Amino acid sequence: MANEMKLEEAILASWRTNNQVNVYLFENLPGELWPLKVPGAPRRTVQMIAGHIHNCRCMWIKMLNKEFNIKVPGSVNRHKVTKEELIPALMQSSEGIIKLIELNLTSKVKKIPNFHAGNVVDFVAYFIAHEAHHRGQICMLARQLGHRLPKKVAVGIWEWTKRRKEWSR
């Protein structure tokens, strides 16, 4: 079939789409949510959860980068990062993850060094699950804090076909 992708292309497309879902959420997240404190964890904010997504990627790129020569993006200050600063940072850390994926896909070594799950498919699944967890946290917090997300946003994070078209333009 003409629409079928090779496994390698599908893995990269899934990662890129996941990143675009994050970007879409943060671009459309009502600004008043950004500084709100997490109930039961008052030292954490929505802003800090969002920054954690980027910083976690940076940590893994740095840790897995010992065998590859990929530029490690700078972390963001989770306490001060703005949405306008986070989105380009997410694009940079996404590119770092893409390079790790590509290097692993083209390498004869099919185990990712220093990664407990092993292969590249598990690696991508781990990251997508981790980031989806935090997107879910943010959506739940919005509701709990009395700032229900606009329907466009709540539905939009599930429209992976639309998000895929956004990054592939």
From TrEMBL:
It comes from the Bacteria. Keywords: Metal-binding. SUPFAM superfamilies: DinB/YfiT-like putative metalloenzymes. This is DinB family protein. It holds the Pfam family DinB. Belongs to the DinB family. The keyword Transit peptide does not apply. It comes from Splendidivirga corallicola. The keyword Translocase does not apply. InterPro entries: DinB, DinB/YfiT-like.
